[in-house]
Amino acid sequence: MHASRIMPFLVLVTLASSATAVDPPKPLLGFGAGTAVEQFALETRFDAALNRDDLREWMKRISARPHHVGSPYDKENAEFIAGLFREWGFDTQIEEFRVLYPPPKSRLLEMVAPTSFKASLVEPPLAEDSTSGQTSEQLPIFNAYSIDGDVTADLVYVNHGIPKDYEELERRGIDVRGKIVIARYGGSWRGIKPKVAAEKGAIGCIIYSDPREDGYFDGDVYPKGGYRNDHSAQRGSVADMPLYSGDPLTPFIGATPDAHRLDVKDAKTLTKIPVLPIYAADALPLLQALGGQMAPESWRGALPIPYHLGPGPTKVHLAVTFDWKQAPIYDVIAKIPGSERPDEWIVRGNHHDAWVNGATDPVSGLVAELGEARALGLLRKGGWKPKRTIVYAAWDGEEPGLLGSTEWVETHADELRTKVAVYVNSDSNARGTLEVGGSHTLETFANQVARDVVDPEKNISVLDRARAEAILDAKEEERKEVRERTDLRIHPLGSGSDYTPFLQHLGIAALNIGYGGESEYGQYHSIYDSFDHYVRFGDPSFDYGVALAKTGGRMVLRLADAEVLPFEFTRFTGELGRYLKEVIKLLDDLRAEIDEKNRRIEDGTYAATFDPTKTFVVPRPEPPVPFLNFAPLQNALVALEKSTKANEKAILERLASGQALSPDAQRALDLVLMKSERMLTRSEGLPRRPWYVHQIYAPGFYTGYGVKTLPGVREAIEEKHWKEAEEQIEFEAQTIAAFAAEVERATAIVRGDSRN
Question: What is the DSSP letter of 607?
Answer without folding.
Answer: G
